[in-house]
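queue> pop job 88
queue> type: inverse folding (structure -> sequence)
queue> payload:
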């Protein structure tokens, strides 16, 4: 039984000795920053979005059969879809309201 009492006493003495090693100085805190100014701007539109794919060249002599005509129609359709997609993206960007970031 006596050994248990000595172990407890040694533990108490070690804890007291280690608490004397604690630093007295307090950590330095960084200053609180001033107010934040938020500036919101629309992103510039890429020049490639303002141009459409060129209209395919139409040479009546080059159209020999229905497949040639169908190929020409597909090229016209692709050129029109290119323009519609680009202008649709620009239309959506311009219609979207400018909203400041949350939490500021």
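queue> result:
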């Amino acid at each position: 039984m006596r050994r248990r009492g000595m172990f407890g006493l040694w533990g108490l003495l070690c804890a007291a000795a280690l608490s004397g090693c604690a630093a007295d100085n307090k950590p330095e805190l960084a200053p609180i920053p001033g107010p934040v100014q938020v500036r919101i701007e629309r992103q510039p539109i890429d020049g490639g979005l303002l141009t459409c794919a060129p209209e395919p060249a139409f040479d009546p002599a080059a159209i020999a059969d229905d497949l040639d005509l169908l190929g020409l129609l597909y090229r016209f359709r692709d050129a029109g879809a290119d323009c519609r997609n680009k202008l649709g993206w620009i239309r959506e960007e311009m219609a979207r309201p400018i909203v400041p970031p949350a939490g500021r």
